[in-house]
Design brief:
Layout: H1 4-10, H2 15-36, E1 40-47, H3 55-71, H4 73-78, E2 81-86, H5 94-107, E3 113-121, H6 123-139, H7 150-154, E4 167-170, E5 189-192, H8 202-213
Parallel strand pairs: 1-3, 2-3, 4-5
Helix pairs in contact: 1-2, 2-3, 3-5
Length: 223
């Protein structure tokens, strides 16, 4: 979800204004996903690399996250949305960790949309941690090294209970993955949009889906 800062700068506004408008785009996208019948939606909210940003901007983002977790969860629950958060929670504030846990518990039984938000997330870190868990399973006698394969390795990832993405959408003209779901996106279709995230709407979402539907997915085969 790129372009919040650039959107604000182009309008002579502080970056926080871009992040606030970005939160509105999240609401629009969640609604569009439900209306389109999408069952799994994953949003890259804050990367492990984003901790390098100025402390004031991080504080603003964490404040927005707190607000979101407090104000949106009942709406999520009412609309049948299950919330799941992946990433390193050790770097998040204790109150945010508690809000996340409460939100996950509150929405755990919902099935209309599985909404995953990646916070303090980096895919390389995730893969290393998964390898460590697989090694520990081998040391504990639960898994023989020769038994490790793509399918059971995926069970050590943070996305073990989710299908791999079919479609990855990136906004603001950026054309890279940026350490997001590297393992899981091995066969995802990519759509890159020039539109900045604060302006992203249902038309953009549905347009990306239509582009995806027009492609042929061969998974290395002949089709």
């Amino acid at each position: 979800m790129d372009g919040n800062g650039r959107w604000a700068r182009a309008r002579g506004l502080p970056r926080t204004a871009g992040h606030n408008r970005g939160a509105e785009a999240v609401r629009r996208t969640v609604k569009a996903a439900i209306e389109a019948g999408v069952r799994y939606l994953t949003l890259f909210g804050f990367s492990s690399e984003n901790w390098k940003r100025p402390a004031s901007e991080i504080d603003d983002l964490m404040g927005l996250l707190r607000h979101y977790l407090k104000r949106e969860i009942e709406e999520f629950h009412k609309n049948g949305i299950r919330l799941n958060v992946i990433g390193d929670r050790n770097r998040l504030g204790a109150d945010i960790v508690e809000l996340i846990a409460n939100a996950e518990r509150r929405t755990a039984s919902n099935q209309r949309l599985n909404l995953t938000i990646a916070l303090s997330y980096g895919s390389r870190d995730e893969i290393v941690a998964a390898a460590q868990r697989a090694m520990q399973a081998a040391l504990d006698g639960k898994l023989k090294p020769e038994q490790l394969n793509e399918q059971n390795f995926s069970q050590f990832l943070l996305t073990a209970d989710m299908p791999d993405p079919d479609l990855l959408i990136r906004t603001s003209g950026e054309k890279r993955i940026s350490n997001f779901l590297l393992w899981q996106c091995a066969y995802a279709e990519f759509v890159f949009l020039e539109r900045q995230w604060p302006d992203f709407d249902a038309n953009d979402f549905n347009g990306a889906i239509q582009e995806y539907l027009g492609r042929t997915r061969r998974y290395g085969g002949a089709g």
